Amino acid sequence: MDTLLLNDCTLCPRNCHIDRIKGQKGYCKTTHELIVARAALHMWEEPCISGDRGSGTVFFSGCAMGCVFCQNYKIAQGLRGKKITVERLSEIFLELQEKNAHNINLVTPSHFVPQIVQALLISRKKGMTLPIVYNCSGYEKIETLKLLKGYVDIYLPDLKYYSKEISKKYSNCEDYFSYASKAIAEMVQQVGEPVFDGNGMMTKGVIVRHLTLPGCLEDSKKIIRYLYETFGDKIYISIMNQYTPMEPIKKYPELNRKITENEYEALVDYAIHIGVENGFIQEGDTASESFIPEFNEEGV
């Protein structure tokens, strides 16, 4: 592992410049020690990721975004989870493969990229062959993403905001779109256009997620238009309606509700109207806490 990347940490756009090797913590609230909250088969991703056997998800604790509405705030901000070694992480990848997972799905991994690359190297030498999914906030630096070239097969980033004002208010990063748009371009350049196997499972490609927030329909439309006009059919767009108000959201009363069917349908109709064909939408009661997994250190 290249400890220089952690001695003066600039892995994410926060550029904290702290020494995580010596135990200092930056915006992500983590040192160099890996913290994992759950490693298990997960059925609630897009159909081409979860399939019928599940995606082998590894939920990392800590996060550089700090969104006020975070559904996983217990691990992103509360750091619930277990400290493990790089060697143990490599074993977890192999154990998920033995459980017949379709892929290895790295959830909120950005602040642990050097350790993850090392774990992937170890597990590959021991027979790990599954596609690797990099499931992130989109708030990424190109320099960090380049470390993943040849290791990641599927990028699954968010594109949360277009507006500087909204991204500043809810995630304290008015530069979010500037970084995320460049990051997605790098991801597409790395893995190319979508590739599926004979069972409809994605083996390479980029799926960009957008979680619709209450009262932010116009910003959501700008995001969908940007993605389609910039990348066309080179990516899939996943339009999500599963926003769920969590306990900390009481400080932001405008977000303390689910989005309405009309709001979501208006965004989906807009996407169809401008020509989006490669996409996923959500149906049914996905805006429920029951869709948030138990972070009980299962599989860790």
UniProtKB/TrEMBL annotation:
Keywords: Iron, Iron-sulfur, Metal-binding, S-adenosyl-L-methionine. It holds the Pfam family Radical_SAM. InterPro entries: Aldolase_TIM (IPR013785), MJ0674-like (IPR040085), Pyrv-formate_lyase-activ_prd (IPR016431), rSAM (IPR007197), rSAM_sf (IPR058240). It comes from the Bacteria. Residues 58-170 form the Radical SAM core domain. CDD domains: Radical_SAM. SUPFAM superfamilies: Radical SAM enzymes. Gene3D superfamilies: Aldolase class I. This is Radical SAM protein. It comes from Defluviitalea saccharophila. The lineage of its organism: Bacteria, Bacillati, Bacillota, Clostridia, Lachnospirales.
